[in-house]
């Protein structure tokens, strides 16, 4: 630093000054006649050598600050004047924070009422754009100042978050969980942000995933009449395949799909069916999740925060779970070779395990496991894979305002959403989403092709299954199943074309036959 200077109380702008947490006698002060922050020390400048270190720590807690060019030394009397003034400022800051919390809650409530699954904040150099993801599509709702966005994220992370890492810092990726009691109910918001490119260096993208917080309760009795699988809207053949997967005595149920495709909901429904129907409540279900999203009936659930230093927090939690005598083990996501190795050990020791990976189809999920270090001979071993499910959430047309599509040469009346929408769908043209599934239950033919290490043959062997039964069973692609919904007038034809491309003649003929046989 350039110099150590002396200053007096009247040279300090106390409205911008703050004390450094845990550093008695040290403050960051803004001088009235300068444009830089200074470190003020009440002890004769003896801690001046710590200037850069302290500012670095402060920056980690509160965001960017320029390095101090010099250290200002003030008398003890003036020091306490500054400290008292900062205390007074903090009282006003508390009121300001309360106002920000009200603003945040208002935004969260409006997102919940709109049926949003996520809230996006794209903070650029001057402004921040807020989007809501409703029925799978991002919709811009408002633009606010960059400073307002920073305040909202700062308060959300530092004040509202229940689990987090240190304090908010826009310059590094961070995650947190926020619990809020809103007028429409209790909700958990999964927070994540990442710095992005911008001229100022303070830009970031933050997302709040909206999760309905279920009441934590003790299930004293099993509801034998309840079928948790009904919400999945399975076809008869899909239900038959899923039953075969769940009734396996041991093995791996692998659920795949992109972020926001409903994997956690499917896991909840599957585990609750197994607990109530397969085991009649007489079983130990243990989960290791990052974090717990839904309360699962009968399950002993644990949240594990993945560490940023590269250490595998899942590994000790998974080992503990295996030592606690589980009948069924659920791992929220398998994303590294250590977790995959531990998972393999659990399956080979006779456990039934459920986990997720990011993969685009049931056959590429097998390659994904192999890339995580699961040996091919294990994957091809009978009983190792109980089944694989890939899923997607598809937006449904509003039945009250959908309009016919101009295309009429496919032999069916196709529909698209109304641009204006209606009151029933909040002017969106859509009415919720439904899951669509691909399923794979491995037989000896598929296992032989897995052992051969030829993904193309695995795919062909799976595709051949769709000719062997009459309904939408194994072997049907996600694209084909969604197109059937298009032909039934449930899904927007134009949306399908945008996401899946043109329709092949063979697909059209086959789906037409399916409709005719219904």
Automatic annotation (TrEMBL):
Keywords: ATP-binding, Nucleotide-binding
CDD domains: PulE-GspE-like
GO cellular component: plasma membrane
One term of GO molecular function: ATP binding
Limits of the Bacterial type II secretion system protein E domain: 97-466
Database matches in PANTHER family: PROTEIN TRANSPORT PROTEIN HOFB HOMOLOG (PTHR30258:SF1), TYPE II SECRETION SYSTEM PROTEIN GSPE-RELATED (PTHR30258)
Family named by the database record: Belongs to the GSP E family.
Protein name as annotated: Flp pilus assembly complex ATPase component TadA
């Amino acid at each position: 630093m350039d110099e150590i200077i002396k200053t007096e109380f009247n040279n300090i702008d106390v409205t911008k000054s703050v004390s450094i947490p845990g550093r008695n006698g040290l403050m960051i002060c803004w001088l009235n006649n300068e444009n830089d922050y200074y470190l003020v020390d009440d002890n004769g400048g003896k801690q001046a050598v710590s200037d850069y270190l302290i500012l670095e720590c402060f920056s980690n807690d509160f965001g960017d600050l320029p390095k101090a060019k010099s250290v200002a030394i003030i008398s003890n009397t003036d020091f306490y004047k500054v400290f008292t003034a900062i205390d007074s400022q903090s009282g006003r800051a508390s009121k300001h924070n309360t106002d920000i919390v009200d603003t945040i809650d208002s935004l969260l409530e409006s997102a919940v009422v709109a049926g949003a699954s996520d809230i996006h904040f794209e903070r650029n150099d001057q402004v921040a754009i807020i989007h809501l993801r409703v029925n799978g599509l991002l919709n811009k709702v408002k633009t606010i100042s960059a400073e307002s966005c920073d305040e909202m994220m700062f308060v959300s992370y530092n004040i509202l978050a229940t689990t987090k890492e240190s304090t908010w810092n826009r310059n590094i990726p961070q995650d947190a969980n926020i619990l809020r009691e809103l007028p429409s109910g209790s909700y958990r918001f999964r927070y994540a942000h990442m710095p992005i490119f911008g001229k100022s260096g303070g830009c970031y993208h933050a997302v709040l995933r909206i999760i309905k917080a279920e009441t934590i309760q003790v299930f004293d009795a099993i509801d034998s009449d309840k079928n948790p699988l009904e919400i999945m809207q399975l076809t008869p053949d899909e239900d038959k395949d899923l039953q075969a997967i769940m009734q396996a005595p041991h093995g791996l149920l692998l659920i795949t799909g992109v972020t926001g495709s409903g994997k956690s909901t499917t896991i909840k429904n599957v585990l609750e069916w197994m607990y109530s129907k397969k085991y009649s409540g007489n079983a130990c279900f243990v989960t290791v999740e990052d974090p717990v999203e839904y309360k699962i009936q009968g399950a002993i659930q644990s949240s594990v925060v993945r560490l940023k230093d590269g250490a595998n927090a899942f590994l000790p939690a998974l080992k503990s779970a295996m030592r606690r005598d589980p009948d069924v083990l659920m791992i929220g996501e398998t994303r590294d070779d250590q977790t995959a190795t531990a998972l393999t050990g659990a399956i080979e020791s006779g456990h039934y395990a459920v986990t997720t990976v990011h993969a685009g189809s049931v056959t590429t999920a097998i390659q994904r496991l192999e890339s995580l270090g699961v040996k091919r001979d294990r994957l091809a071993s009978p009983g190792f894979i109980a089944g694989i499910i890939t899923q997607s959430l598809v937006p449904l047309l509003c039945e009250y305002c959908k309009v016919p599509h101009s295309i009429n040469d496919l032999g069916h009346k196709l529909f698209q959403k109304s641009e204006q929408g209606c009151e029933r769908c909040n002017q969106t043209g859509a009415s919720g989403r439904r899951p669509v599934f691909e399923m794979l239950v491995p037989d000896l033919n598929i296992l032989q092709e897995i052992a051969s290490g030829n993904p193309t043959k695995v795919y062909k062997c799976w595709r051949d299954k769709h000719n062997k039964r009459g309904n939408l069973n194994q072997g049907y692609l996600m694209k084909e199943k969604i197109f059937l919904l298009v032909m039934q007038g449930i899904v927007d034809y134009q949306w399908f074309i945008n996401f899946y491309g043109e329709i092949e003649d063979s697909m059209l003929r086959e789906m037409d036959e399916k409709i005719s046989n219904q």
